[in-house]
């Protein structure tokens, strides 16, 4: 029996999803609720069954340290198939053994990209209750340069080769072998696709200011030089900015932007000490890819990696910008208890004349004049990278951290910086947006105020039947 030739082709043109970055058969990118359409072509008659599936897999590999530097290093690997969707095909369309000549057969397929996985995709125990929900969301493609980029070039997605999330259309042609009554695969192939699930903007991450991974506030002593006189204390503070929402242009290039705000406060050693002279601000984005050979039962952190030999982390750094900020103006504030009639309070409870710029006082602040300023930091993702949305799955996770470093004028000593989390997402697809809009309208309609007052003719009839003296009370209650 001849061995069939099998191939997969995806549809082009207007039926391609709106977020697609593919202009040739080399690249295809889909998001939530997009429909992946195409066909499987088989030449030959050496098969009597065909399975077409959309499959998603996660694979990791970790090299463990041996007992000695020269001893063999055991390697831990893990592979999880978290998604498998089967295309139904009518068995009567398969060739039969009575057909004399080889023919070409074409079988169309259609898959809709889901927003979530089935519950059995994440069945492992967890330490934190909140870990299961993100594990059941569809993870984005990651770690395969063959599908990272545009149709013209491939870009790095800042992930190692030992941690991968892959999606592909699989076609397997099989036949029944009469000699041993077994079903054997006679030919198979696959077509990779890139999937970036769309999600609504997530709330800020609940992370602690540990100083090692994240630092939201820095309080630093400022001197004229290393052993010079104390000039005061500088406080640099930032909060988590809004997530970056990825968008794609006609060429298939993905980009996104957001804005962070750096709040500054200077508590001088004396009232005659001026605030420090600012020099420039640099921003850098770090992509942390966590991977594990066993299911992750908690939210991965850098500290957890050092305690678990079955986990690893890969950190990639991308410079964003370096801006001169010498023109930023300081605003002077008088201590609150200097005002007439004010009651003296601890510095931690003092308020600024400009509440949006108010920052808690530095350590050792004894009252008196202080200065505040703020710096707006634009965040624009470079277009020469293949950006992966933030996600967490059972064995692979991706988080981002924004490092902001404030440099002072040379005579004020070295600078100070903060490290804050940053989320990257992808807007929901058109169909999902319409469904959420209808649901939101229904919810808002439920809480919309309604007029429950009886019709005027009913009120007149009721009031006419009331005893004397009660009619005015009834009308007053209805009016209220």
User: Would you tell me the structural class of the helices and strands?
Assistant: mainly beta
Principal-axis shape equals: elongated
Please, how many helices? 5
* Total beta-strand segments: 21
Features:
disordered C terminus; 480 residues; mainly beta; five-stranded antiparallel sheet
Descriptive overview:
- It is a single chain.
- The chain is mainly beta.
- The strands form five sheets. Strands 2-8-7-4-5 form a five-stranded mixed beta sheet, with no helix packed on it.
- The model is unreliable at 13-26, 336-357, 429-434 and 469-480 (pLDDT under 50).
- The N and C termini lie far apart (88 Å).
- Strand 19 (396-408) and strand 20 (416-422) form a beta hairpin.
- The chain contains five helices and 21 strands.
What is this structure's SSE topology?
Blueprint: E1 5-10, E2 29-30, E3 35-43, E4 49-63, E5 75-86, E6 104-112, H1 132-135, E7 163-177, E8 182-195, E9 217-223, E10 230-238, E11 244-248, E12 254-255, E13 257-268, E14 278-292, H2 302-307, E15 311-324, E16 331-333, E17 370-380, E18 391-392, E19 396-408, E20 416-422, E21 424-426, H3 430-447, H4 456-465, H5 471-479
Parallel strand pairs: 2-8, 11-21
Antiparallel strand pairs: 1-3, 3-6, 4-5, 4-7, 7-8, 9-10, 10-13, 11-12, 13-17, 14-15, 14-19, 16-17, 18-19, 19-20
């Amino acid at each position: 029996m001849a061995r069939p030739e099998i191939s997969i082709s995806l549809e082009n043109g207007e039926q391609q999803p709106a977020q697609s970055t593919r202009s040739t058969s080399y690249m295809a990118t889909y998001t939530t609720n997009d429909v992946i359409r195409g066909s499987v072509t088989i030449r030959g008659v050496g098969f009597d069954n065909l399975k077409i599936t959309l499959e998603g897999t996660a694979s990791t590999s970790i090299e463990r340290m041996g007992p000695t530097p020269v001893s063999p290093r055991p390697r831990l690997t893990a592979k999880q198939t978290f998604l498998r969707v089967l295309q139904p095909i009518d068995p009567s369309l398969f060739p039969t053994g009575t057909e004399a000549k080889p023919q070409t057969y074409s079988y169309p397929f259609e898959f809709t990209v889901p927003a979530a996985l089935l519950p059995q995709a994440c069945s492992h125990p967890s330490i934190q209750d909140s870990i299961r929900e993100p594990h059941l969301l569809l993870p984005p493609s990651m770690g395969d340069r063959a599908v990272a980029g545009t149709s013209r070039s491939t870009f790095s997605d800042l992930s190692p080769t030992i941690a991968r999330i892959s999606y592909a259309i699989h076609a397997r042609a099989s036949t029944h072998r009469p000699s041993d009554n077994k079903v054997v695969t006679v030919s198979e192939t696959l077509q990779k696709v890139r999937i970036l699930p769309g999600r609504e903007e997530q709330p800020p991450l609940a992370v602690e200011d540990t100083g090692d991974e994240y630092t939201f506030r820095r309080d630093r002593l400022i001197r004229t030089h290393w052993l010079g006189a104390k000039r005061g204390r500088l406080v640099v503070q930032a909060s988590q900015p809004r997530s970056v929402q990825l968008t794609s242009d006609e060429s298939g290039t993905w980009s996104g932007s957001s804005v962070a705000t750096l709040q500054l406060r200077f508590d001088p050693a004396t009232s005659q000490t001026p605030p420090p002279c600012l020099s420039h601000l640099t921003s850098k984005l770090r992509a942390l890819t966590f991977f594990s050979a066993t299911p992750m039962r908690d939210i991965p952190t850098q500290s957890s990696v050092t305690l678990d030999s079955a986990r690893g982390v890969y950190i990639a750094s991308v410079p964003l910008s370096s801006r001169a900020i010498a023109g930023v103006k300081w605003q002077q504030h008088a201590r609150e208890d200097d005002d007439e009639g004010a009651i003296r309070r601890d510095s931690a409870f003092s308020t600024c004349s400009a509440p949006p710029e108010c920052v808690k006082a530095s350590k050792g602040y004894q009252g008196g004049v202080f200065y505040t300023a703020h710096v707006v930091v634009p965040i624009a993702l470079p277009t020469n990278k293949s950006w992966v949305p933030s996600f967490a799955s059972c064995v692979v996770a991706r988080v981002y951290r924004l490092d902001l470093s404030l440099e002072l004028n040379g005579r004020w000593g070295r600078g100070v910086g903060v490290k804050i989390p940053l989320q990257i997402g992808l807007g929901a697809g058109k169909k999902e947006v319409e469904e959420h809009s209808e649901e939101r309208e229904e919810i808002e309609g439920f809480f919309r105020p309604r007029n429950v007052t009886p019709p005027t003719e009913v009120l007149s009839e009721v009031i006419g039947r009331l005893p004397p003296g009660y009619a005015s009370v009834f009308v007053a209650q209805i009016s209220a």
